[in-house]
Structures are given as structure tokens and as C-alpha cells.
Amino acid sequence: MQWAAAAAAASCLAAAEEWIHRRAIRRRMANLYALSQHPVGGSPSKAGEFVRLTLQDLGYEYRTYANSHPPPDGTSDLPRVLFSTRLIAVDDGSGFTFQGEEHYEVLASFVREHVFNLLLRRGMRQLKNEQCGLLLPDRQKRLGALAPKVLVTDDYETAETLVVIVHKSGTVRTGQWSRRACICCSLEEGSVVAYMERIKERKWAAILLDPASCDDDPMPDEVASSEHVLCSWDHLIERAEAKRVFFIAHELGGKSVLTLLQQRLDGMMKRCAGIALVDGMHAGTWYPFNVKAEYRLFLNERCRNWIRSEKSLGEHLSQDEDTFGRAVRPLSADDPITLISSGTVDRQRVAIMAMEGIFKFFDQLHDKRVYA
Predict the structure, then answer these.
(1) Who contacts 264 (Cβ-Cβ below 8 Å, separation ≥6)?
(2) Is residue 329 exposed (0-12), middle (13-18) or buried (19+ Cβ within 10 Å)?
(3) Helix (H/G/I), strand (E/B), else coil: 41
(4) Do 167 and 256 form a contact (C-beta atoms < 8 A)?
(5) Taking a C-beta distance cutoff of 8 angstroms, is the pair 209, 168 a contact?
(6) What does pTM read for this prediction?
(7) Which of 191, 210, 293, 372 could form a disulfide with 174 if both were Cys (CB 3.0 to 4.6 A apart)?
(8) Backbone conformation region of residue 150, classed left if phi is above 0, alpha if psi is from -120 to 50, else beta
């Protein structure tokens, strides 16, 4: 028994040391990236002035290619994506080649900036943190420049329908589902680019939250993420005129949105038209929804969770078939949230595979009733 406890302690210690090592590398690379973008940082020119570094300086760029296979028809849940924007090497057109963790972290920082600027070029704008209270004041002061970068469409305050996207914690930032997918697959798979096209088609507004920006704060990820979502509800979402508010929450973002439901029940019941979880963490010791009838009815009608599964895309699953998520979100037998297969076991592709099903679900709820 003592040997088992000692082994478990050693394993936890090793995991903690690895986590500290990786975070130190991320911070070092983030500092290098920040220096490269600073007016007095970066790479010196012949005249002695400093210029901003770009993806091309690392030997990569994004190119857009037409997909060779025909798009599925409107009745299919398969993603209808006509183009793929892929990261390729400038010199020979090959894909990404891993050259060590530090190189990967630097490249990921530039990719993050590329995604952010792409969304700005497509009509979104960044909110100033000090003007909209995206964090509690003490945390806002501690994080400073690392505070959340929230993007909105120009009509987010006046549109009748508003979509709020809540990302997971960790290394991703605003507009990203997965760094790895942005680097190794395409922006359509790794970012919200395709989702924003669906939102624009419907003339809906959008807010992209940034809970992962709090990852360098000493408070646990789920607490910091939930605080950011709560503050965003109080200072942004609740003040908007939208009659219907939809949430798309990725992984840990699901926990934050359901914490919001718990903390702001009356407002959410009136205005939240639907919640789509993307491989969402939505259960655990904090999970009160299985004992309160008002929670259960709300989640049963208005919430779905698209998860990794070997089953066919769109197939409804039982709790016993949630094999990939059981370690992080144990489900009760009477869980009110319907589980739906994303048709893939690849964690990086769940978001793109679930996209058409999510918007069909939202369309049904949108036409069903007005919530405000």
C-alpha cells in the first residue's frame, strides 16, 4: 500500500515537473515573439532599425487550395468546406516539419497572430479590456498585456441573434480550436474561420472570448476561464440587445458555460437559445444539473455535446459510449445532455466535423421561439 502511494506521488511529481518545464518554454517563446513584434524589437535592418518578424521569416506561409472532393449536399452533416488554407514551406511547398519544441512554440505564436489578424481583416474588431470588464479588476491588473483579447462583430450590440464562442484553456487563443490543427492541417480545421462564415450567412453577430489568456495566472484554469465568461456575460452579453444567444463551447469552455448557467440562471433561461459543446467537459463533482428539474429541462432541450467517437457522424450516443471523455467528465446515468458523435476520434477534427450539425441544431432552436 505504501509502495503504491509512493509510486503515485512520484508520478504526480514527474507530471508537475514536466508541466513546469513546458510552461517555462512557452513563456520564453512568448517573450521572444513579443520582442519580435515590438517597435524596438525584432530583426535589425541594414539601416540599424528594427522590423517586425513574420511567418515568412520562419520559412512558412499560408496558401489556400480548392478541395478536390465535391461538397456534400445540404442534408448531410459532413462539413461543407470548399477551400483549405494550409501552412506550407515557402521554399519547396512542403508541409510543416517538426524542428524541436522551441521552434514549434515560436511558430505557434506567429500562427496565433495570423489567425487573429485574419479575423480582423474579415470584419471583426478587438474590444479594449479596460472598457468592458472582461476580468475582475485585480486579475486584470496582474495580467496586464496578457489579458483576454476578445473579438466581436460590429453589430454584436444590436443584432437579434448573437453567437458566443468559448475556447478551451491551455495554449490556444482567440479564434483557435487547436494550434496543432492550424499548423499541421488547415485553418478551416484549427480555427473558427469556417464557423464565422456560417454565422455571417445567417446575419447573426458573434463574440469570441479568450479564456485561455488567463493560463499564466496562478489561479486554476477552470476558475479563471469561468471568471472570464461570467464577466463577459455581465458586461457584454447581457447588455446586448440580442433576443437569442447561442453558445459554442470547446472542451473546458463547456464547463465555464454551464457554470455561467448555474450562476446566472434567470438571465440564461430567458435569453440563451442553445448551447453546443464541442468535446465539452460538462460533468464532475460540481455538476448540479442532475438534481434540479429546471436545469435538467433546459439542458435536455437546448444543449448538445458533440464528442469524439467511432460511431457515424450525427449518431446519438449513450453515456457508455463516451469512451474518450470518461477520464475527464464522468457522466451520470441520467445525464440530461444529449451526446452526439462527431464521426472522428481525432481530437483536432471534432470542431470541423461537428460544425454542420451544430448550426442545424441552432437553426431549429432559432425558429422555435423567442427567448427575451
Answers:
(1) 230, 233, 234, 238
(2) buried
(3) coil
(4) no
(5) no
(6) 0.81
(7) 210
(8) beta
In this predicted model, what pLDDT tens digit does every residue of 103-154 receive, in sequence order?
888 899 899 999 999 999 999 999 876 655 565 555 555 555 456 789 999 9
Question: Quick check: 162 and 207 in contact, CB under 8 A?
Answer: yes
Q: How far apart are CA 90 and CA 62, in angstroms?
A: 9
- Model confidence pLDDT, tens digit, residues 235-285: 899 999 999 999 999 988 888 898 898 889 889 999 999 999 999 876 554
The long-range contacts involving 97-102, CB below 8 angstroms and separated by at least 24 positions, are: 101/22, 101/25, 102/25, 102/28, 102/29
**Alpha-carbon Rg for the chain in angstroms:** 21
Dist CA 175 CA 150 (whole Å): 9
Q: Measured over all CA atoms, what is the biggest interatomic distance in the chain, rounded to whole angstroms?
A: 70
SS3 151: strand
How many CB atoms within 10 Å of residue 248?
Answer: 29
Phi, then psi, of 61 in degrees rounded to 5: -155, 165
Q: Under a CB-based contact definition with an 8 Å cutoff, are residues 159 and 241 in contact?
A: yes
The conformation of residue 211, written as its DSSP 8-state character, comes to G
- What are the tens digits of pLDDT across the range 278-287? 998 765 544 5
Contact, 83 vs 68, CB < 8 A? no
Instruction: Please report, to the nearest 10 degrees, the dihedral formed by the alpha carbons of residues 261, 202, 206, 194 taken in order.
Output: 110
pLDDT of residue 16: 53
In eight-state DSSP terms, residue 70 is: P
- Count of positions (residues) in the chain: 372
Residue 329, helix vs strand vs coil: coil
CB 149 within 8 A of CB 232: no
Supply the angle between the helices 193-201 and 101-121 in degrees, to the nearest 10.
20
Helical residues (DSSP H) of the chain, grouped into ranges: 2-37, 101-121, 129-132, 137-143, 179-184, 187-190, 193-201, 221-232, 252-263, 265-271, 293-302, 350-368
**Which grid coordinates belong to 191?**
480555427
